[in-house]
């Protein structure tokens, strides 16, 4: 019984983390219209920044350390976003994709090749438990607590992004995404808008990294490989580029598929690695706007209420 | 002079799109820029607005050398334009097309926007008020929530003007504002352009192929052909200019 509960709790926490990754990737790729393939790099930066602080500030009270490490995760990822954003965002389309993909891989490979006494190198590292003690008997409350925290983080991220998109700087970003030339000629600095989106998106990916590290209790560079980027991309392509609520549903579909497949006999379990890229390709060919397109679930409910029964 | 171009030249590979053009505009001028297809009129607009950098020549605006200024910098200095091929942001509604361009008195930072701080509300209210009044002024007050792509052609052109005015420009460049309009709409647009100049203290430079329209409202006209300025004068002078008749107008005088 508790095994089943643990499975579903784990599934939901993972959905939450992928929701954070997807809404932030979506801000960059969907709303801002850039082709960015290095999100796993920001995720890793956040995870390792949080881990580093947790390992090196062990004297602080646990919950404080937890919060501080999440803030550091966001800050480090945001600085990463700013550093690669400024030179890269002058590139367009495929070139931007290659440059950001390179960044994502460099982060992982750099950690992989770092000395073992610094963040564990290729072997990975344990992340000390600071939120609460986690033993076999406290797994259920620990997962419930993490789920609550992740849910709050998702709600906050979605709210902040939604507010942003309905503000002056947000509209400028949408204008740049739709017609950069017109935007520039109407006084909008396209690079500034894009860097802002990039930094916001990387900060939230960093937050997802910090939450992930604390939840897993240990991380290694392979957690952040390119296949993860494919998954995130699939989530936003399924949900709809430019739809925040689509991300939540997309994340659920992808994570649930993967984890349910994982329970299956080994011969089938690893098939998600084939299945996901295949679905991704099919979606892009047959329904590139995703399930939701640019619409939000709230728009649909409103339209559905308005239409005569 | 609010605006001065000297020896403005643009070469694309072997093609000289604009060649040694001089142009001057005084505050409050309403001037036309005409010439046959491919004469280099739109290219001139691109050079003036910083969309493209001139190969040679200089541009001064409000006393400052702006030859190398970027597009968004020119826009913020007070040069606004509309486009020959309408370039509205199709996935935003009419109101947001204008609101994206409005500058409120104070900047609305990211934090203020994301957290809905009082500053965000102030900026938002100011911007919405300004955008709405501009749209109402251009006769688009009833279609604020529509998608620009669903509007008739003439309305889209007027939306482009409203959007340009949101920059509080000193110099407004209109690239074929009457194209695709019927005679009634054109007559109304003439009225509007004249009134806007007065209400917003504008200097206006406009391109159009409709001679009735251009001659009807412009006080002066520049004529381009093959990138070169072949004539400059009042509508009456231009109508009877030998070179202009030969290159563009046919027999009108
Ligand atoms: N970016 C560019 N690259 C190469 N050639 C260009 C470019 N822009 C314009 N041209 C060329 O420069 C010449 C002038 O074009 P321009 O668009 O300025 O003409 P125009 O006077 O506006 O004509 P129309 O009345 O048809 O709008 C044309 O031959 C055009 O093909
Ligand atoms: Mg033209």
Total number of beta strands of chain A: 2
The ligands bound in this entry are: adenosine-5'-triphosphate, magnesium ion
Helical residue percent of chain A?
over 70%
Strand order of the largest sheet of chain B: 6-7-8-3-9-10
- Look at the structure and name the CATH superfamily of the largest domain in chain B: P-loop containing nucleotide triphosphate hydrolases
Outline the low-pLDDT stretches of chain B: none
CATH class of the largest domain in chain B: Alpha Beta
Instruction: Report the largest inter-chain contact.
Output: A-B, 27 and 42 residues
Number of helices of chain A: 13
Structural class of chain B: alpha/beta
Please indicate the count of domains of chain A. Answer: 1
Category from helices, strands and their pairing of chain A: mainly alpha
The total domain count of chain B is 2
Q: In sequence order, what are the helices and strands of chain B, one letter per element?
A: EEEHEEHEHHHHEHEHEEHH
Which keywords apply here?
heterodimer, A: 309 residues, globular, B: alpha/beta, Rossmann fold, 2 domains, six-stranded mixed sheet, binds magnesium ion
Notes on the protein architecture:
The complex is a heterodimer of chains A (309) and B (253). By secondary structure, chain A is mainly α. Chain A has one domain. Chain A has a two-stranded antiparallel ribbon with strand order 1-2. The termini of chain A are far apart. With 253 residues, chain B is of the alpha/beta class. Chain B has two domains: 157 residues, Rossmann fold (3-Layer(aba) Sandwich), CATH 3.40.50; 67 residues, no CATH class. Chain B contains ten helices and ten strands. Chain B is globular, with a radius of gyration of 19 Å. The two termini of chain B are 31 Å apart. The interface between A and B is medium-sized, with 27 and 42 residues. Bound molecules: adenosine-5'-triphosphate and magnesium ion.
